Amino acid sequence: MTFVPDGETPLLRGKEYTAPSVFEPENLLREARRQKRLPDRPVPDICLLDPDGDVVRHLAATGHGVLEPAWACYHTQMWTTEVDGLRIGVVGCAVGAPFAVLVAEQLAASGATLVVSVTSAGQLSPLADPPYFVLIDRALRDEGTSLHYQAPSAWAQLPGHLGAAVEPLLAPGGTVRRGASWTTDAPYRETGTAIAVAVAAGAVCVEMEAAALYAYAAARGRDVVCIAHVTNSMAVYGDDFEKGETNGATASLTLTASIARAIIGAGGGRAEVG
After folding, report:
1. What is the DSSP letter of 43?
2. Which of 258, 256, 269, 218 lies closest to 118 in space, CA to CA?
3. Residue 225 CA to its chain's centroid (Å)
């Protein structure tokens, strides 16, 4: 075992991608249930990551959701709701790659079989007038979390079977496009040079979770679909961050249900209706 020389990053040292982790999410959840006296039962098959928290605030304000007592995460709450006959668990405010993957690991350990992330994103190359959704088919790995799950590479990919299943949702003239994203750890370091590099690589938007979630999904054999809700031009021109009706909550829930239905109908995922 060698030390990390001064001037080198430890981020690329000591990685054994097939080795088991000493610290597992199941063990943390076991202790959380013990301490909090929570029931040991599964969460919904289908779960939505809501980094901005608009969906959970909408569910709480309207009474359309209930808190899930079986969710044992120390850092977040889960609200459950029903959309199009599907029970969906929603976890809000897990912003950024490390937090999103931490929650995704715990969701899988708690029984979730499909995770959909709908995250606010900045527009790099316009596909329409914001707000609109982008199915992220690949994400530039400009963050650190993915490097703990997969060896270095430029991109993390949406699994092909999931992309094929949701392809019918990308109808011309619809509200969902398809494209590449740039995942960054540092939104306030989106410099002109960094943006130019991402655009040259083919990214159409910028967000903070997708590359890590896709790397995690590939390494762990999980079903994850990442959606960018393009709402802004990084506040350069004003009138930004508008998501539309209910701050985008209704549209995000409807899209999540549509994605789940498409994957279930195609037989390409692990989620089930119930």
Report:
1. P
2. 256
3. 7
Q: Which residue has the tokens 């950024």?
A: 96
Other C-beta atoms closer than 10 Å to the C-beta of 271 total 22
Contact call for residues 114 and 43 (beta carbons, < 8 A): no
Domains of the chain in sequence order: 43-266 (3.40.50.1580)
CB within 8 Å of 221: residues ≥ 6 apart: none
pLDDT in tens, 201-231: 999 999 999 999 999 999 999 999 999 999 9
Q: Is the pTM of this model over 0.85?
A: yes
Cis? peptide before 10, omega within 30° of 0: no
Using left for φ > 0, alpha for ψ between -120 and 50, and beta otherwise, residue 213 falls in: alpha
* Euclidean distance between CA atoms 166 and 225, whole angstroms: 9
231-243 pLDDT, tens digit each? 988 766 667 677 8
Q: Which helix (H) or strand (E) holds 246?
A: none
CA distances 157 to 26, 40, 80, Å, are 26, 33, 28
32 Cβ neighbours under 8 A, 6+ residues apart: 38, 72, 73, 74
Task: Give the whole-angstrom CA distance, residue 30 versus residue 79.
Answer: 20
